[in-house]
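In response to reviewer comment 3 from the previous cycle, which asked for concrete evidence that the modeling workflow produces usable outputs, we include below a single protein chain processed end to end. The sequence was submitted unchanged, and the resulting structure tokens are shown without manual editing.
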Amino acid sequence: MLHRMAESYNQGNKRAKPNVQTFNSCLNACAYTTFRDEFIEAFVIAVSTFLLLEQYTKPDHVTYATFLKAISKLIPRGEERRRQVVEIVFRRCCRDGLVS
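The workflow returned the following structure tokens.
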């Protein structure tokens, strides 16, 4: 749905511009992925959604919290990349003044 909205917006439908709630909903779906065999795909979708968001709007505190929730669910504890991603996201959240 998100990609359809973005595509429609890019083709001139200004009413289809995805907003922060649209992106947050997509991130939330990733955060609540239940099947382990879908975790990698959900992580890739979460990261691409987070990066795509910056082309259309700015993240809010919900965006950061939901993305961090997705990371904690989708990357196993103890993996170095989990710590690295959390650190990067937290620093961006601080930079944006959205630590609550």
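The two ends are 30 Å apart (CA to CA). We consider this sufficient to address the reviewer's concern, and the full set will be provided in the supplementary archive.
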